[in-house]
């Protein structure tokens, strides 16, 4: 019996992930088919032809033999909530790593990650579980990326950075070398991190400056 990939979340990131996962088949996939989505919004795919169906809600689905999962929900906390819920039912998570992503030597990628085409992960990088590295984002050498981190398109993280859990990077944000960013920080679109960020909050501008001392 072949492996069936089930994608949690059928919004834009979910649809992108379905396409990436199909392009992985025959190259580096741990599944034999992209079976469909788990989403509470049963009509969300109505205007998007050609995708697999919505199978059930994440809350109601019971994993069966041969199922493997990836969560493509953009909201980090919701993503990790669904992951925890399905793992409690025995779900096995796998990473979707597009064949057009560049992966350097000694890169360690955790489970449940989505590594999009034309992203770059340089040598000796550690990426923990359920991370999304979007199109044209890059992580330079010797970085550590925590659980649930999201890099939007065009985000750049320079070498020797320590990015802790659940950090969100906006489009075309950047981090200078050897910086630390603590859990739950949000780096806004176009922001440039030139100093360590040691307090969770929302940061914008150059240099990145806090505008709110908590997540939205």
Nutshell version of this structure?
This protein has 216 residues and is of the alpha/beta class. It has helices at residues 12-24, 76-87; strands spanning 4-8, 33-38, 54-56, 67-71, 96-97, 102-103, 108-109, 114-115, 120-121, 126-127, 132-133, 138-139, 144-145, 150-151, 156-157, 162-163, 168-169, 174-175, 180-181, 186-187, 192-193, 202-204, 209-212.
Walk me through this protein's architecture.
The chain has two domains: 4-94, Rossmann fold (3-Layer(aba) Sandwich), CATH 3.40.50; 97-216, 3 Solenoid (UDP N-Acetylglucosamine Acyltransferase, domain 1). 12% of the residues lie in helices and 28% in strands. The chain has helices at 12-24, 76-87; strands at 4-8, 33-38, 54-56, 67-71, 96-97, 102-103, 108-109, 114-115, 120-121, 126-127, 132-133, 138-139, 144-145, 150-151, 156-157, 162-163, 168-169, 174-175, 180-181, 186-187, 192-193, 202-204, 209-212. The longest helix is centred in the first third of the chain and has 13 residues, at 12-24. Strand 22 and strand 23 form a beta hairpin. It has two helices and 23 strands. The mean pLDDT is 96. The chain is α/β, with parallel strands linked by helices.
Q: Kindly provide the name of the CATH class of the largest domain.
A: Mainly Beta
What summary fits the major beta sheet?
8 strands, mixed
Radius of gyration: 17 Å
Q: Helical percent range?
A: 10-25%
Q: Which geometry do the CA atoms define?
A: globular
Would you tell me the overall average pLDDT?
A: 96
Structural domain count:
2
Q: Please list the strands of the largest sheet in the order they lie side by side.
A: 5-8-11-14-17-20-22-23
């Amino acid at each position: 019996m072949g492996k069936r990939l089930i994608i949690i979340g059928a919004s834009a990131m979910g649809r992108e992930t379905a396409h990436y996962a199909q392009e992985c088949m025959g190259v580096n996939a741990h599944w034999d088919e992209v079976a469909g989505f788990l989403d509470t919004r049963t009509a969300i795919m109505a205007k998007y032809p050609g995708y697999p169906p919505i199978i059930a809600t994440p809350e109601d689905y019971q994993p069966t033999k041969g199922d493997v999962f990836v969560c493509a929900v953009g909201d980090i906390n919701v993503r990790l909530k669904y992951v925890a819920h399905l793992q409690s039912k025995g779900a096995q998570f796998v990473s979707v790593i597009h064949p057009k992503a560049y992966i350097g030597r000694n890169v360690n990628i955790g489970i449940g990650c989505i590594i999009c085409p034309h992203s770059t992960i340089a040598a000796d990088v550690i990426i923990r579980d359920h991370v999304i590295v979007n199109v044209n984002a890059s992580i330079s050498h010797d970085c550590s990326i925590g659980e649930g981190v999201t890099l939007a398109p065009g985000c750049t993280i320079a070498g020797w950075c320590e990015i802790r859990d659940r950090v969100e990077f906006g489009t075309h944000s950047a981090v200078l070398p050897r910086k630390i960013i603590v859990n739950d920080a949000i780096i806004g679109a176009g922001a440039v991190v030139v100093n360590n960020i040691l307090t969770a909050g929302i940061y914008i501008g150059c240099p990145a400056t806090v505008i709110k001392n908590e997540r939205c």
